[in-house]
């Protein structure tokens, strides 16, 4: 399989001339099955999902969306992507169960008046909302394992996705300093590719702890310890400019290969 990085930013989009090369859209990754031309699985639907329509060969997306958590930067692109809003669209959307609410109602907390003009039913196509499965499950032909991970404000899931040729894990918002369960560690153990929260750097430790995020340095240590093949630093702070990210890349010290996520990048998983 391969990954399309459609949005790599955290918290809020970052437009403007200082954010052109790494991109300003928030979290969204397309997962393209081996031998296919386009994704059948999306990790989150931040504003980066707006990049999907022009990259698809078909008019409408058909597949599943795995939502890590319900913070705005991970779902706010959903109603603004044309490929997700056609009559021929089919989406199975998985959201972390919490507060005793149905997955549809969880989404509707931010996607309904007065916060937003339409409710989930206002999206065209066939939409089905599911709780994130508690057990390893086949979704769109991929083996998907989810586990709760530490972040801040609501329930947050990390995902491990595998096919017959490779594996990746997706933990865009994660505070490992708050502790990791065995299930969380198993998500990332020996994956070929890990996309992980790298919003802050160690000199910003106080704010990383306050906001429930990781630093670049601890992410590298975590990935190396877990036997990860390639680490993709993901969910960049919206104040981190292209020049900042270039510098970050130059100064990196890592025992494993590290890639700084850039919008538009394709990453093979094998
Ligand atoms: Zn986020
Ligand atoms: Zn978050």
Count of DSSP strands: 14
Shape: globular
Q: For the report, how would you describe the main beta sheet?
A: 7 strands, mixed
| Terminal residue distance | 7 Å
Overall pLDDT, averaged? 97
Low-pLDDT sequence parts: none
Radius of gyration of CA atoms, rounded to a whole number: 17 Å
How many DSSP helices? 6
Percentage of helical residues?
10-25%
The portion of residues forming beta strands comes to: 25-35%
What can you tell me about this protein's structure?
This protein is an alpha/beta fold and 270 residues long. The chain is 16% helix and 26% strand. It has 6 helices and 14 strands. The strands form 2 sheets. It has a 7-stranded mixed beta sheet. The chain has a 7-stranded mixed beta sheet with strand order 7-8-9-10-11-12-13. Strand 10 (167-171), helix 3 and strand 11 form a beta-alpha-beta unit. It is globular. The model has no long low-confidence stretch (mean pLDDT 97). The site of one zinc ion (ZN) has 4 residues, from loops.
């Amino acid at each position: 399989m391969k990954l399309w990085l459609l949005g790599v930013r955290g918290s809020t989009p970052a437009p403007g001339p200082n954010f052109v090369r790494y991109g300003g859209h928030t979290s969204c990754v397309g997962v393209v099955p081996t031998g296919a031309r386009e994704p059948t699985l999306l990790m989150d639907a931040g504003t980066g999902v707006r990049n999907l329509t022009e990259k698809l060969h078909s008019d409408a997306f058909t597949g599943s969306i795995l939502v890590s958590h319900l913070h705005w930067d991970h779902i706010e692109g959903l109603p603004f992507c044309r490929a997700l809003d056609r009559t021929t669209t089919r989406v199975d959307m998985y959201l972390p169960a919490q507060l005793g609410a149905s997955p549809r109602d969880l989404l509707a907390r931010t996607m309904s008046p007065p916060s937003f003009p339409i409710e989930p039913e206002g999206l065209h196509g066939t939409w089905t909302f599911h709780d994130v499965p508690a057990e390893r499950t086949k979704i769109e032909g991929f083996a998907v394992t989810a586990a709760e991970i530490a972040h801040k404000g609501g329930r947050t899931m990390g995902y491990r996705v595998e096919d017959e040729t490779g594996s990746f894990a997706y933990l865009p918002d994660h505070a490992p300093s708050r502790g990791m369960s065995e299930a969380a560690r198993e998500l990332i153990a020996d994956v070929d590719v890990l996309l992980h929260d790298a919003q802050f750097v160690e000199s910003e430790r106080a704010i990383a702890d306050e906001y429930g995020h990781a630093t670049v340095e601890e992410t590298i240590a975590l990935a190396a310890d877990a036997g990860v093949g390639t680490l993709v630093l993901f969910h960049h702070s919206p104040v981190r400019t292209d020049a900042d990210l270039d510098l970050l890349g130059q100064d990196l010290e890592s025992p494993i290969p590290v890639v700084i996520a850039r919008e538009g990048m394709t990453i093979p998983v094998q």
